[in-house]
Specification:
- The chain is built from six helices and 41 strands.
- It has about 775 residues and is mainly beta.
- The strands form eight sheets. It has a 22-stranded antiparallel β-barrel. The chain has a five-stranded mixed beta sheet with strand order 1-7-8-5-6. Strands 2-3-4 form a three-stranded antiparallel beta sheet, with no helix packed on it.
- The radius of gyration is 26 Å and the shape is globular.
């Protein structure tokens, strides 16, 4: 295969750049800022932490020409963050949808975010398993897709980079964190769900240190009446070896098991349900063509813990990874970094409402980067040149062929919602697959049933030049090659040949301009065109398209185009960080069934972090945005009209229109600029924490979101809503105690599921006021 000429410069740079006039000084590196009176380990201010996971080299946030929010180790620990919904409120443009009750990854700028680990992209995890916090000590939230060094994954709204816990050479240290459960005074059941985390680090010698962290969790949940469990076992290990001043080897590995399922939430969303908690009871008739319209029997106030998760539903996930980062510093002006990452995932899930998935995901990636600093034409320059090889093997069996969801009454006291047993006349049998469960072939328009393999080599070149002492230009180029093959595992059973292979190349680039008029101020402009791959939503396997079973070559050229300008400031002697960014971003969005649509989002983002001393800190961010689909026809399960699911004169407001039949997959919208669903045009988040000199303290955080459209025709919506949380704590030298008061004002808030596919079918409730707590011991 002949390399495109535009990439030859990348290859040549590997050999040429080290030979140029290298300088002994770090010409473009800015030391992290220091806040007097605040030790680094107690700082929540992003100014005190450098990051190499935005453009590839270690930079302070003022030197980074992208919109990024940094959650430091102190902020992570102080706020007790251990979930997606908890950390995403510390970034503008970020929010977490219900995602069938399984918030595995946040949304950024109107689309799903990718997940990285120390700068390497993890396996596809939308609707997968909950991310572990057992091995995490910091988080970078980058709004917009990855740079030329990292490339883009399946999702290009942005990405979350998890920074793993590092061993400490300062001496032995052990931290134990224990949680007991949740007390719910009104509105639902209290429950016992105990967890313990034991985190230990120590040096072996001056050159070698290790860290090991174990977390175990088990017990009931708020949805215990439906049989929902939350059990986990998790072990993390890290090793840092510095044989000399020029070489560093950082290794981490983790294995985790969990059984947290898709809770699904409440079906039949409508405005009476959202505004007044009124649920229309009754079930559908079992017709040969499928479940018929809902025959309403009455109304009830929906219980807080109502869920379509049925007693006997099943979920199980095992995930393991290993990563080695090797750094070789040949001189102050030249170093090589190699990152190797491998991950294996096994997920099983079965919901009696008729959704099942058995997924195997194996991923391996190796990236080598040459970091060079030199002078050219009298100006300091730096470059990152390198290559990546990534391999993904996916095997997934999926069944949603008989899934309707609207036909069940979520208030049924049996708490069993079994499609096969309750609707035998309309049940279409599948093919026997793993563990004796039924699944459906790719050839039956279920692209999530597939066996696929993907090789993705890439070359990249990123060049940073100081045009003046205050103005610098960063240019990144990347060429990706995709060698893909896929087949339907049920070819023999169906007799339909359904397989294909494809070779595709795609080019991406970014241009960033950074102006530093002073040491405490920066302004930047970014333009980026990134090509991303497209995979199915059950593990990211290659999609074979209906009806010919072919791979669409454009699935590897999904364009994300970003224009962004921003400003960042360090104020009040580095005690206050503020930032603002304006952006316009277009990209592709994928849903269940392989449906792909284009979206555009534009807006203004503001953020601030204030910490005058170690005992007081506050955060605030605001998002003002607008977004919609572009000339697209998103598919909605249940169709575009929620009233068509009810018999004439029945249902919400007596608006039912069915005369006895119902086609839940028909009556879809035509092409158009439809609204994004579960998308607020205004998001406001704030938090504050204060500790007295005697160790006692209090904190509070609040989130406010504006109106959200429920389905494409806006037949129902989630109004503007807020949630207020508070905490009381005590901190001593060797131990601390924290008590959280969540949803203090008992708001009956709702979460959209996050996509058009389920917009007419599902919605999720916020839990009522509840009290949780944890204790930490330090040795």
């Amino acid at each position: 295969m002949q390399l495109p000429s535009r990439i030859l410069s990348c290859v040549l740079s590997l050999g040429v750049l080290p030979l140029l006039s290298a300088q002994d000084g770090d010409t473009l590196h800015l030391e992290r800022y220091v806040v007097t009176g605040v030790p680094a380990e107690q700082s929540v201010n992003p100014l005190t932490r450098d990051s190499s996971t935005v453009v590839g080299d270690a930079r302070n946030i003022l030197d980074t020409p992208r919109a990024v929010s940094a959650i430091t180790e102190a902020l992570l620990n102080e706020r007790g963050i251990h979930g997606v919904k908890e950390f995403v409120v510390y970034s503008p443009g970020g929010y977490a949808t219900a995602s069938y009750g399984l918030a595995t990854t946040p949304n950024l700028r109107g689309d799903t975010a990718e997940t990285y680990l120390n700068g390497q992209r993890r396996s596809y995890n939308l609707y997968g398993f909950l991310p572990s916090w057992n091995g995490i000590e910091a988080v970078d939230i980058v709004r917009g897709p990855g740079s030329a060094v990292f490339g883009a994954g399946f999702f290009s709204g942005g990405y979350v980079n998890y920074v793993t816990k590092q061993p400490k050479f300062s001496g032995p240290e052990t931290n134990v964190t224990a949680r007991l459960g949740t007390w719910v005074p009104h509105g639902g059941p209290s429950y016992l769900n105990a967890s313990v985390q034991i985190d230990h680090t120590a040096p072996v010698s001056e050159k070698l240190a290790y860290r090991v962290s174990y977390e175990g969790k088990g017990g009931d949940t708020f949805y215990k009446e439906n049989g929902v469990k939350d059990d986990r076992q998790d072990i993390y290990f890290a090793l840092t070896w510095k044989p000399d001043s020029r070489r560093t080897f950082q290794f981490n590995a983790q294995w985790e098991w969990q059984n947290w399922p898709e809770i699904l939430g409440v079906n039949r969303p409508n405005q009476d349900l959202i505004d007044h908690g009124i649920y229309y009871t009754g079930t559908s008739e079992d017709l040969p063509s499928g479940p018929g319209p809902i025959r309403v029997t009455g109304t009830v106030t929906i219980p807080w813990d109502a869920s379509l998760f049925a007693i006997g539903d099943y979920s199980n996930s095992n995930a393991g990874h290993a990563q080695l980062i090797s750094t070789f510093e040949f001189s102050p002006a030249f170093k090589v970094v190699n990152r190797t990452f491998a991950e294996t995932i096994r997920r099983h899930r079965y919901n009696q409402s008729e959704y099942a998935e058995w997924v195997w995901q194996d991923t391996a990636e190796n990236r080598t980067e040459a970091h060079v600093k030199f002078d050219l034409l009298g100006r300091p320059q730096s470059a990152i040149v390198g290559a990546t090889v990534r391999y993904e093997h996916r095997k997934s069996y999926t069944n949603y062929f008989n899934e309707y969801l609207y036909n069940f009454d979520v208030t049924d006291p049996s708490r069993v919602f079994n499609q096969a047993a309750q609707y035998p006349n309309s049940y279409f049998p599948g093919f026997i697959g793993p563990d004796g469960y039924q699944f459906f072939p790719n050839a039956y328009d279920v692209p999530e049933t597939v066996v696929s393999a993907l090789w993705n080599p890439a070359l990249f070149w990123q060049h940073d030049v100081a045009l003046t002492d205050q103005l610098s230009l960063l240019v990144g180029l990347r060429e990706d090659w995709f060698f893909a093959r896929a087949r339907d595992p049920y070819e023999a059973e169906t007799g339909i040949p359904y397989r294909d292979s494809a070779t595709v190349a795609s080019f991406s680039h970014n241009v960033n301009l950074l102006w530093r008029p002073s040491a405490l101020t920066s302004f930047y402009a970014t333009y980026q065109r990134i090509r991303a791959a497209n995979g199915n939503v059950t593990g990211g396997g290659i999609i074979l398209n209906t009806p010919d079973g072919q791979i669409n070559r454009d699935d590897f050229r999904n364009l994300s185009e970003l224009a962004e300008v921003g400003a960042k400031f360090s104020l009040l002697e580095n005690k206050l960080f503020t930032g603002a960014s304006w952006f316009n971003q277009t990209r592709s969005k994928v849903s269940l069934g392989g449906k792909k649509n284009n979206i555009v989002v534009r807006g203004l983002e503001l953020e601030a972090v204030y910490q005058p001393h170690a005992r007081l800190n506050a955060t605030f961010n605001a998002t003002f945005q607008d977004g919609h689909y572009l000339d697209s026809r998103p598919f909605q399960m249940g169709g575009r009209d929620i009233y068509a699911a009810y018999l004439v004169g029945q249902g919400p407001g007596g608006k039912g229109t069915s005369t006895g039949t119902y086609a839940p997959f028909g009556n879809q919208v035509p092409n158009g600029d439809w609204p994004l669903l579960g998308f607020s045009k205004v998001l406001l988040n704030g938090s504050v924490r204060y500790r007295l000199e005697n160790g006692f303290g209090a904190g509070a955080n609040a989130q406010w979101s504006s109106r959200q459209a429920g389905n494409l025709d806006d037949q129902w919506h989630i109004p503007a809503q807020y949630v207020l949380n508070a905490s009381l704590f005590y901190e001593a030298k060797r131990w601390s105690l924290n008590v959280d008061f969540l949803n203090v004002t008992q708001q009956r808030n709702w979460y959209h599921n996050g996509d058009a596919f389920s917009g007419s079918i599902l919605v999720f409730q916020e839990q009522p006021f509840r009290v949780e707590g944890y204790v930490k011991l330090r040795f």
